Amino acid sequence: MSSEVPSDNDEVGATLWLPRKASMPAHVVCPKMADHTAASTIAIARHELQESWQGGQVTLRLVSEGSDNDGYHIKYKVADHSAVVSARRPLGLLYGTYALLRWQETKEGNDRDTTWTSAPALQRRMLNHWDNPDGSVERGYAGKSIWKWEQITKNGMTDSLRQRLTIYARANASVGINAMVVNNVNASPKMVTRPYLEKLKVIADLLRPYGIQVWLSINFGSPLALHETKTADPLDAAVQRWWQRKAREIYKLIPDFGGFLVKANSEGQPGPGDYHRSHADGANMLADALKPYGSTVIWRSFVYGANHKGEDRVMQAVSEFKPMDGLFHDNVILQSKNGPLDFQPREPYAPIFDNMTKTPQMAELQITQEYTGQSLHLVYLAPMWKEFFSYVDPVARGLKGIAGVANTGDDTNWCGHPFSQSNWYAFGRLAWDPSLTSEQIAHEWLLQTFGRGDSVTVAALEDMMLSSREACVDYMMPLGLHHIFAFDHHYGPQPDGYKAEYPLEWCPVYYHKADKQGLGFDRTVATGSGATAQYREPYRSLYENVKTCPEQYLLWFHHVAWDYRLANGRTLWQSLCDHYDAGVRRVAAYRVLWQSPAVRNYVDKVQWQQVDKLLATQLDNARQWQHTCLDYFNGFRSY
Amino acid sequence: MSSEVPSDNDEVGATLWLPRKASMPAHVVCPKMADHTAASTIAIARHELQESWQGGQVTLRLVSEGSDNDGYHIKYKVADHSAVVSARRPLGLLYGTYALLRWQETKEGNDRDTTWTSAPALQRRMLNHWDNPDGSVERGYAGKSIWKWEQITKNGMTDSLRQRLTIYARANASVGINAMVVNNVNASPKMVTRPYLEKLKVIADLLRPYGIQVWLSINFGSPLALHETKTADPLDAAVQRWWQRKAREIYKLIPDFGGFLVKANSEGQPGPGDYHRSHADGANMLADALKPYGSTVIWRSFVYGANHKGEDRVMQAVSEFKPMDGLFHDNVILQSKNGPLDFQPREPYAPIFDNMTKTPQMAELQITQEYTGQSLHLVYLAPMWKEFFSYVDPVARGLKGIAGVANTGDDTNWCGHPFSQSNWYAFGRLAWDPSLTSEQIAHEWLLQTFGRGDSVTVAALEDMMLSSREACVDYMMPLGLHHIFAFDHHYGPQPDGYKAEYPLEWCPVYYHKADKQGLGFDRTVATGSGATAQYREPYRSLYENVKTCPEQYLLWFHHVAWDYRLANGRTLWQSLCDHYDAGVRRVAAYRVLWQSPAVRNYVDKVQWQQVDKLLATQLDNARQWQHTCLDYFNGFRSY
Fold first, then answer.
1. Total domain count for chain B?
2. Residues B619, A393: C-beta atoms closer than 8 Å
């Protein structure tokens, strides 16, 4: 809060939502541990409390009862402001420590004796970094990669990097993130070479006490690309041996290494299909190499254009993988994006979650805002993820975890847009507890980031955050329009996008299918691609019928006449105009709201200025979306 | 706009959205008319243009072609900024004049030669004043009645009243309102006595050139109450003769008198039922008395508790009137509220519009904010009325008109809350053209009321207006809760409301039906009152099934278990909490937005202060609704 903690301008936003320093060191009682990692974890917890706890004594206590995972129990006594955090594991104590400090920053009203228990709903709460060894970040909008490989040797890393990565580790641990794929799914074979593995070990050593496991994205063709085998065929014995050796090498360096994430035969990546082998063949070969270490292959289902050319792109994952259900070894997890296309601002859920009953699955969410204004638009994504959970309940479906494509970079504030930090925060909180509401998380984040402030101001900013995703949908892809983004960078609109040299399914015209009659992609069984058939009931029937299809998915599933009347009596064309208008109007409201004295007083001055400028850009962009798309579509109507 | 027109603080808001004075008088060419009314109408048009038109010459032209009603045609030439307004009737020229001035205040971008035509979609565009002769106003929240009966004699009215009523007449004409019932539907018999009729003639003379017809609400028992007959039985010959004489007397004074509006056998009002006659008997008797003058009886269907005691109140209008469909004489119009209950912030449409195929109908909307925060809450009602139109299209259904219960009073600014003026404005605009959007109307109103201003600021205020009705629903009656307002005044919450001495259907507990199991009024055919059966398909089936019932009507049609999960996976109880939260949060955002410098600079200073205070009250009230209702309902859950 600007009034309490004058910020050093060079470092604004650098410490994220982490707890503020207290004026006096707190008294902390904690167990002594022989094990090095356990001792380190507990030392971190103690240190966090000493620095930031403003109450009486805190006791960290390892217990033998309680949940058999990384959960914690907290007991706070108002009489002496003391607290007891108990857990079965040291990491549970660390999670409980952060929970206690979060509670301190966000609790409401008069204190009273309070106890609560929490345990993670999902086993794997994972960031996927799309960082390349050259320091670039695919779909990264906050500077270069946070991994400064050149600042790491097998013996350690520079102090400045260690300092920075320590904040990273604390931030992740504070929200319960426990796994991290360091590199891009479009993976360089370099990443599995000795020099990088030795650097990875140094990172792993730093992250370990925070409970964060390191993983690697691997290039399926690595042994071939590194000229160590003559093929990458998964059924080739030399290839299998190569991966077995590689696994052994990795585990020797990093005994708790997480496993491999694989993008194969997708968008130009090598894979088992290059040798007429199936995804199952490929995944199982790698899984077998990892099996001795009890670890896992995560195989991405984001695959299209290879074996199902010409088929509606959103159907291809199910077409490809459903026949393999049951063929994967038990340490393979299939990872799928929340929607069947590609991280649009709104998609119906990916029906692969309905179609694979024997294969363990994970969901992949995108924290980095590839299609949602990147680091220039204020778009709080928790409502989007909650919407997905309403169709695919991660707990009820037994998902093995949730991955989020990271939005971090070497910008001072990590994420570019000050509010983009909230998406990283929200991802972690939801992976721990998918039943939290978007509002609760926004509230927590605001109070920890900017301070308690006046409750009306905080509520107003919550309102802004909570409505921002729908505003983005309104000005980018109303009524289920999708993938009309500019080529390659996916930032602005390009509804007329068509390039003969590109796959058709990269081209906006393929998706909106505007013509004289109307707009939208007919995916019905009756007259279209038949994608609705991949959904479970009641969605299959609801989506198939234009009258019952939720309007937010209308143009996703139907080609609709320009003068078709929606439920409110407005034509399709009028409704498009209405939605673009609504999106622009809402961003205008943010812009004016942001300049209110109450907001200026609440938010750190530097961050206030950053956001003020960014909202101006967002408003310009929203208008550009409106004009570009309406001008373009209007051309079809007035043939 | 504050920067251009320094306002006289005593009169802020008094001239409503009427056109500003131009710096130079405009040159107006217009036809000379022999007829007194026509000449007056054209003189008004000329005067408005002379005062406020900022372009070149304006020609008002009567033509013989064109639409056969009060429409107009406008042709603007950018070369000399001249305009021609043509119409078949003088009143069309006046409407065209206001349209031209509205266009001047609101047009966008570079001018070009422009022509357009407009004609009213509905014949009767009517205000219903609920004003009593003693100066009180039922459900009035802006001071006393605008009719100062004591300032009117048969020879005229005071200058101050004339001044004030002239603004009233201009404001109505500027949005096309052409009919006006001066008095409360709970009508005093006094209103049809000679002294009041003579005063009414004076009002009618003032309003006539503005195209506004006067009407009266009549007390069905008038002849009896005035001791001029021994009964009010509509089949009694003496009663019939009395009304015939009364009609003759009125038409002699006011040859273009509109007709009678009648509330009979409803909430204690006398009616034909007192003599075991039907509504048709009563309406037809009055209709016959008016027939010689070509005029009309408007009979209200808002009737319950008499012949259908014990039946679900929302069903009684159809039960009562459907059997009479076809029995009414052809100059009777049935007038029904938009919803089947009583002007709640959200109601499903009134199914009487589906059930009477032979009887001409009108819709009654409530401009005065009886159940929407009165004159203390900013709630822009156009979206509510548009929602009703999406079920009952006034044009397609052939409605004979739309009535709006007026929100005017003798407060300087007419409506109490500065933004309540926008509801009067929007009512008139929608009655003229129901296809206008809520956004267009908000935009017009803002620009005419506060000036052009900065487009971002205007968009932000539009966003506030457009979202305000949903915010009100969120904090007053989420998910279809209804009629849990405090007794009598209907301002705040009273969910525990029960009074043995009141009819049960006035009591909140009758409507929410909270119990240990859940919440809501079961109106299904399967297990409840069966009200869903009064709806046409597909609504009948949609509403009957809890799974397909739109969530906004959930508790209107269903008794739902506390732990029932809504589409987003949240339980009923959680969703209630979410909606109350969302409503409060949105009002908090208005409060902060309003204090932004851009808004302060845009809005007149006095009005800014008024709204600023009112938003503080609205926020307090929203929180009170939240806490009162959630505390109360929570008691049932935790039995």
1. 3
2. no
